[in-house]
Design brief:
The protein has 27 helices and no strands. It starts with a helix and ends with a helix. The chain is mainly α. The longest helix has 34 residues. It folds into 3 domains: 297 residues, no CATH class; 183 residues, Up-down Bundle (Methane Monooxygenase Hydroxylase, Chain G, domain 1); 179 residues, Methane Monooxygenase Hydroxylase, Chain G, domain 1 (Up-down Bundle).
């Protein structure tokens, strides 16, 4: 039991979980406080509207820079009560309510063009109007609801500002800590490459390494996005952000070293395993120090192990020693950044009040929205699709006066996604979560309604919802559903009949969303997958060409190589996500799954092997005409494969890689079996093999068709 509790505590202490818990704490304080205090002050009639306004505003706060978050919440605090009042007035005429819902949903969908943080604002604008329809249908006091709703929104903004002023850099620190923890897991998986292991075992370990590499890459990219958003909203020297950037870059480069350790098979060695284990421990320690905000990084053991492995001299150093030495250098960079970062924290005003720049280009948002007012825009087509379904559901419930009917358009509104596979997943999660949540709501209404236990249950449900909503949607809906049911209306004489109606509306709304996703201007991934694959191949081509060019000079890699690596990883990740979305679509709407999967496998391998090769730049030099010839052949072959995908044709036959590759292999074979030159020769073989696989994969798939 105690072991499990310690494991749970360790998981909750990670960066991503701390972000979720912080968000849950902030949202719960904003929503529970008015629920508990307003009845004591004699304002119980606006308690539920205030809680509902706080709940929706917390959903609008979807992360990003302080400026964008504050703008979105302030806009909702002004527009939300107005839309609620509009809903209470429009419910009297079903056609007015329908037209209003259509217009509001189109605008809400277009707001998506302003960035991911605007999606929550758009959805909750439409939700505010639906809440107004429910209030008008039930005969609730419109003005009290609007005032309470707006008051809850502004109260939530005050709570958010209080959290921001206390720790303005906390979110970035948690994201970077999460990146270091993911890199630590990648380093642990680097124990995979062992000479003598069975084929099955090596394949499983390679798959684990690839999975950990993907998770580490995603964690680093999330941290880069958070860092970029903070940079966009600050002015001045930015000393804190500069040190955080050093820490993030160190994590990314240690990740590259870990990929090298995992890709190159080395003889079993106790010191090697100890050094990799110490590297994993050191990376986890960096994450823990960032979360604590204090402490020193202990690197003596890592230095000793790396020094012991490198005692054989430069000529006998293998790829693992070089990779570990590179990781050691970046750990020392992180240690220097810690000294600057924690010393800087003594300046309290710099911590509490980062310089914020509110200057925006005049009319930038309006120009962005106008640019998407065309049928060629995927965002505009999706906005129309959502508007049609939401307006249809609104027409039905207002025309026939269906009690609790807002669950029908509300379900369609939140389920519909730009891609059909995402809509299916949301429909399943929403329906299952609603059924489970409705049962919870019925139990609460039948047992503890009107008591202190009822308010405590709502507080617990709120905390769970905020903690899970952005990572475990289905579970979050299980906790969110009873909250919304209890806040919109206090139930009926028979709560079980009440929740049965809500479940029925949810199922119908999900069915409408699925029908709309399939039949109204669908965006099938097969139409975009070839383009995504071609972009990934071209990004890999540029990254590989730069790495091979760097292999010809005895100098550390250029700064541009890191940017090319990032672009390649993003492009490969986009292609992988497009393939996964395609798998969620109907079978007759898919492209050839086997061909796309084969291409993705070789695209991933090419990116990983290029990263492993880049780790040797500066330590191994292979300047020769053969290297330039191989670089040109690989670049031309990869461009032809990408162009073949664009033109829907087979690629050209395999170029003659063998002659320059043989010359390079001979030139690099002077060292021992574990020398870095031999490791580079092996990586060149693998890169040629990956390119050959890309050339042959589309041909094989076309012949099979």
């Amino acid at each position: 039991m105690w072991v499990k509790l310690r494991q749970l505590g360790a998981r909750l202490a990670t960066g991503p979980n701390r972000i979720a818990l912080s968000t849950a704490l902030r949202g719960t304080i904003a929503t529970v406080t008015p629920l508990a205090l307003l009845p004591l002050l004699g304002w119980g009639d606006i308690a539920y509207p205030t809680v509902f306004g706080a709940l929706n505003t917390s959903m609008v706060d979807a992360g990003g820079s302080y400026r964008s978050r504050l703008t979105a919440m302030a806009m909702f605090a002004v527009v939300g009560p107005c839309l609620l009042l509009l809903g209470t007035a429009a419910v009297a005429e079903w056609w007015v309510a329908t037209l209003c819902m259509f217009a509001i949903t189109v605008v809400s969908g277009l707001v998506r063009a302003l960035g991911p943080g605007s999606i929550g604002l758009g959805i909750n604008m439409a939700v505010a109007f639906l809440v107004g329809l429910s209030v008008g249908e039930s005969g609730g006091p419109p003005l009290s609801w609007a005032l309470g709703f707006g008051g809850g929104a502004w109260w939530t903004i005050l709570i958010a500002l209080a959290f921001w002023q206390l720790r303005p850099y906390r979110r970035i620190e948690q994201e970077i800590a999460g990146a270091w923890e993911a890199v630590a897991a990648l380093a642990g998986a680097a124990q995979a490459a062992e000479v003598g292991a069975s084929v099955v075992m090596r394949r499983r370990r390679e798959q684990r390494l690839a999975a950990r590499h993907r998770l580490a890459r995603e964690a680093v990219e999330r941290a880069r996005d958070a860092l970029g958003e903070m940079r966009a909203g600050t002015t001045g020297p930015g000393t804190m952000l500069a040190q955080l950037t050093v820490l993030l870059n160190a994590a990314a480069r240690i990740g590259a070293a870990a990929v090298t350790l995992g890709e190159v098979a080395m003889p079993e060695s106790v010191p090697r395993r100890a050094a990799i284990a110490e590297l994993e421990r050191s990376c986890r320690e960096v994450g823990h120090l960032l979360l604590r905000g204090a402490g020193e990084l202990a690197l003596d053991s890592m230095r000793r192990l790396v020094r012991d492995l490198g005692r054989g001299g430069e000529a006998e150093r293998g790829a693992d020693q070089l990779a570990l030495a590179q990781a050691m250098r970046h750990l020392e960079n992180a240690d220097d950044a810690f000294r600057q970062l924690f010393g800087r924290r003594r300046r309290l005003l710099d911590v509490l009040r980062p310089p914020v720049d509110f200057r925006l280009p005049s009319g930038a948002a309006l120009r962005t929205l106008r640019a998407h007012l065309t049928s060629d825009s995927a965002i505009f087509r999706h906005a129309l699709r959502v508007a049609v379904v939401a307006a249809l559901g609104t027409a039905v419930i207002t025309r026939y006066g269906l009690a609790h009917g807002i669950w029908l358009p509300l379900t369609s509104l939140v389920i519909l996604q730009p891609d059909y596979g995402g809509t299916i997943n949301r429909a399943l999660q929403r329906t299952a979560g609603t059924v489970a949540g409705a049962v919870v709501a019925g139990i609460l209404l039948a047992s503890v309604h009107g008591s202190a236990a009822f308010d405590a249950a709502i507080a617990a449900l709120l905390f769970a919802t905020f903690a899970l909503i952005r990572r475990r949607y289905g579970y979050a809906i299980t906790f969110l559903t009873p909250i919304v049911m209890l806040l919109i209306g206090e139930g009926s004489a028979d709560p079980w009949i009440d929740l049965a109606e809500r479940i029925a509306y949810t199922v119908v709304g999900a069915a409408l969303a699925l029908a709309a996703g399939y039949g109204l201007w669908p965006q099938w991934e097969r139409e975009r997958l070839s383009d995504r694959l071609a972009r990934a191949i071209r990004a890999d081509r540029d990254y590989l060409a730069a790495a091979l060019a760097g292999l010809a000079v005895a100098a550390p890699p250029a700064a541009a190589l890191g940017q090319l690596r990032r672009q390649a990883e993003i492009a490969v990740g986009n292609a992988d996500a497009a393939f996964q979305r395609m798998l969620g679509e109907p079978a007759h709407r898919r492209a050839r799954v086997d061909a796309a999967f084969t291409l993705l496998v070789y695209i991933h391998r090419l990116s990983r092997h290029t990263t492993a090769l880049a780790a040797h730049l500066g330590a191994v030099v292979a300047a020769s005409s053969a290297l330039e010839a191989l670089r040109q052949l690989l670049a031309a072959a990869l461009e032809d494969v990408a162009q073949a995908l664009d033109d829907a044709r087979p690629p050209a036959p395999r170029p003659a890689f063998d002659e320059p590759l043989a010359q390079l292999r001979t030139a690099l074979s002077a060292g021992g079996e574990a020398s870095p030159d031999r490791s580079v020769a092996g990586l060149l073989d693998q890169l040629v093999s990956d390119t050959t696989g890309l050339i042959l994969a589309p041909v094989a798939a076309r012949q099979a068709a």
